[in-house]
Amino acid sequence: MLKFAPSIHRLGTESAFEVLARANKLSAQGRDIINLGIGQPDFRTPEHIVEAGIQALRDGAHGYTPANGLPALREAVAADLEARHGAPVNPDNVVVVPGGKPTMFFAVLMFGEPGAEIMYPNPGFPIYESVIRYSGATPVPIALSEESGFAFDAEAVLAQITPNTRLIILNSPANPTGGVTPKAEIDKLVKGLEAHPDVAILSDEIYSRMLYGGRSHVSLLQYPEIRDRLIVLDGWSKTYAMTGWRLGYAVWPDAMVDHAIRLCINDHSCVNAATQYAGIAALTGPQDAVEAMVAEFDQRRAFIVQALNDLPGVRCADPAGAFYAFPNISETGLGAREAQDRFLNEAGVATIAGTSFGAWGEGYLRFSYANSLENIEKAIERIRACL
Ligand code: PLP
Question: pTM for the whole thing?
Answer without folding.
Answer: 0.97
